[in-house]
Backbone:
């Protein structure tokens, strides 16, 4: 007998104020690329964009996204802005980051995922992404999907219909965002060509400074770049990121650069317009008037530091730095004067600013930059928020599921009454008597772990304001158990129906779990039989069972 399973849930939404921006390339910012060709042009761009002010921390990325990734004129009834998510069209709002991930659009696994590079928190390739779409995208290369295994109307994942560097699955964004992703990838391989690419994820890449992109990837990205020109969204975002990081995506400012480096103008010399060249007057290229140095959220008793990059042309003498106004006593400088000889160089000069809050609450001040031959002063906003030290309970790790020959899914329980920024999964591998460990970052209460070659274990910690909980219990994952997991297990399928899904399974399936897009377990259904119906309100869900190799994701409309 078919039974009808009812599930009701509540979708909370909210938002934040939107800042209207206009693009303005600082005079002299790109002066060093004038007259360059091919590899030299790419190298000159790298020298400009690599040295930038890093955002405060991975935890604080949603605070930056509130400026860089919201619709300018779309709010809910409470006045909160809608997140601008290029992976899904599910309306989520900025009072919460629940249901979203901090997504490295250029997958971090491709360079090993190390946090010791500015790439890890570089806003030029980090975007908010709806959790289910992000999980489906995984770390697959960009490409054109032939047969989709995931399609939410914005993102497709599936087998490729054209060259893909040998990848068996690819991620295809919506047409309106294909140019955005292409220019993001152009930026990344220009800024971080020094990184070492993981050999098993190098579908789109070559290990060299030029051209860095594989031939098929150059063709694909150039096609998307031409078909989807720079939008107002990209112009506004580029300016917003510049005010945080002091660097820009040159392929948004000068889209034709992609043609000179990889496309139909390769071999030709690139020249700036004369109006873009320095005038001979003392000019501070970075930082600029109105830039915001945001320290994000810092726990009481801790300090936040930021490296501020200075670069200019024709400056004389020294620059004078002064912190003034409001909560000035909570911000301090490593330098109060800077020799402009260093600032005028191509490498520029770095100085450190520290935020040490002494009271709970939001704090602001202003850095004033004078002299150096400048007319007047340049002001940089300083801001941070101090919160109480978090109390974090110990996570309970759960047994691994979806174990295959080369991967498995690590799982854990999520504390219901704690604010968590993200989770750290410590993976320990036991190979030929040797033990190796690595830390992996997860946004949800599960993580698919690849390259499973031998017995291993994992523990989990929650992270809030850079504090970590104590490690969880240890979960062992054994190679010897794979055959028993995979053999003679009933497959769970489904088809969509109005207001939910109809389960399809050859045999009874037990303990079917339903999660919302934030990874929160909503319900466990003890027994599911063929043609049972699960009713769900509008939204995205993840459904899994112990007998399944992988969860499936659904969107109820």
Residues:
């Amino acid at each position: 007998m078919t039974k009808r399973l009812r599930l009701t849930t509540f979708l909370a939404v909210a938002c934040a104020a939107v800042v209207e921006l206009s693009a303005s390339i600082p005079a002299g910012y790109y002066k060093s690329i004038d007259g360059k060709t091919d590899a030299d042009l790419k190298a000159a761009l790298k020298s400009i964009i690599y040295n930038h002010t890093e955002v405060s921390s991975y935890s604080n990325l949603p605070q930056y996204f509130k400026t860089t990734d919201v619709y300018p004129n779309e709010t809910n009834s409470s006045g909160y802005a809608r997140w601008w998510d290029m992976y899904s069209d599910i309306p989520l709002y900025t009072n919460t980051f629940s249901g979203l991930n901090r997504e490295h659009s250029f997958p971090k696994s491709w360079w090993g995922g190390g946090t010791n590079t500015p790439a890890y928190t570089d806003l030029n390739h980090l975007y908010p992404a709806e959790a289910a779409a992000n999980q489906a995208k995984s770390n697959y290369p960009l490409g054109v999907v032939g047969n989709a295994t995931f399609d939410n109307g914005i993102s497709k994942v599936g087998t490729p219909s054209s060259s893909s560097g040998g990848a068996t699955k690819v991620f295809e964004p919506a047409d309106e965002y294909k140019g955005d992703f292409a220019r993001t990838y152009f930026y990344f391989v220009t800024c971080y060509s020094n990184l070492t690419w993981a050999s098993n994820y190098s579908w789109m890449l070559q290990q060299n400074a030029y051209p860095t992109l594989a031939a098929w990837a150059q063709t694909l990205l150039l096609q998307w770049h031409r078909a989807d020109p720079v939008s107002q969204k990209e112009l506004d975002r580029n300016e917003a990121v510049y005010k945080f990081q002091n660097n820009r995506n040159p392929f948004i400012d000068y889209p034709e650069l992609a043609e000179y480096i990889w496309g139909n103008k390769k071999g030709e010399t690139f020249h700036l317009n004369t109006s873009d060249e320095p005038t001979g007057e003392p000019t501070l290229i970075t930082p600029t008037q109105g830039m915001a140095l945001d320290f994000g959220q810092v726990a009481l008793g801790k300090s936040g530091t930021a490296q501020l990059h200075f670069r200019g042309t024709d400056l004389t003498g020294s620059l004078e730095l002064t912190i003034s106004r409001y909560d000035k006593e909570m911000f301090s400088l490593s330098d109060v004067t800077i020799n402009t000889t260093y600032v005028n160089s191509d490498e520029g000069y770095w100085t450190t600013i520290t935020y040490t809050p002494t009271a709970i609450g939001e704090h602001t001040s202003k850095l004033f930059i004078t002299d150096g031959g400048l007319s007047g002063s340049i002001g940089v906003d300083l801001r941070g928020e101090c919160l109480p030290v978090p109390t974090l309970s110990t996570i309970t790790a759960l047994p691994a599921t979806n174990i295959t020959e080369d991967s498995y899914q690590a799982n854990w329980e999520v504390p219901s009454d704690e604010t968590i920024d993200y989770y750290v999964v410590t993976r320990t591998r036991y190979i030929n008597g040797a033990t190796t460990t690595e830390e992996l970052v997860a946004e949800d209460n599960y993580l698919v772990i690849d390259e499973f070659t031998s017995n291993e274990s994992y523990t989990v910690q929650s992270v809030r304001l850079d504090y970590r909980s104590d490690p969880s219990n240890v979960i062992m994952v054994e190679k010897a158990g794979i055959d028993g997991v995979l053999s003679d297990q009933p497959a769970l399928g489904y088809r969509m129906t109005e207001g939910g899904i109809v389960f399809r399974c050859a045999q009874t399936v037990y303990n079917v779990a339903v999660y919302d897009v934030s990874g929160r377990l909503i319900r466990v259904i003890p027994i599911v039989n063929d043609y049972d119906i699960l009713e769900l309100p509008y939204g995205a869900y993840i459904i899994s069972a112990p007998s399944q190799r992988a969860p499936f994701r659904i969107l109820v409309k």
User: Anything to note?
Assistant: The radius of gyration is 25 Å.
